[in-house]
Amino acid sequence: MSVASAFQSSKIVPDVIPVPPTKPIELKYPSGAVAQLGNELTPTQVKDQPTVSYDADPNSYYTLIFTDPDNYDGPEKVYREWHHWLVVNIPGSNVSQGEVLSGYIGSGPPEGTGIHRYIYILYKQPGKLQFDEKKLTNKSIDGRAAFSTQKFVEKYKLGAPVAGNFYKAQFDSYVPLLYKSLGV
User: Fold this and answer.
1) What is the pLDDT of residues 10-37, one digit of tens each?
2) Strand, helix or coil at 85?
3) Measuring CA to CA, which residue among 60, 128, 66 is closest to residue 94?
């Protein structure tokens, strides 16, 4: 299955973004887990930041968004998306050299909320940009809820996504430990 068709069949398009990316992002976790366009992984497997690889122009800057659009299932769609990691001004494919706006927090779907989609989306920036979002560590949940990938993209004129990947996860025994580390 192509990246575009996987994003469409999983309803990432239109739930999160209006058009799908066409190229893959390779995601390998320290646990050995690999995201593969919708496979199911556990919060335990994805608790640590993955190695992220993708085809990139070495002379361009990129933005990487990692988000969960299934955070809230109520009528107010504004609360649905919760971003787990946000890295901007990435030179080429060197994610570690990018500017971290929100530190990596692994998947933590609450008990009883079923399967959540965890989505990585990559955008090519028009150049190096100034971002005004508050910087968050991997211990801070401030401002992560009620995130909108699409509004962020529009704000910074990032255009269409160039690459993506996702997996699905549901509650496991690691989630309460994650919440405790976040002070929740």
Assistant:
1) 999 999 999 999 999 999 999 999 999 9
2) strand
3) 60
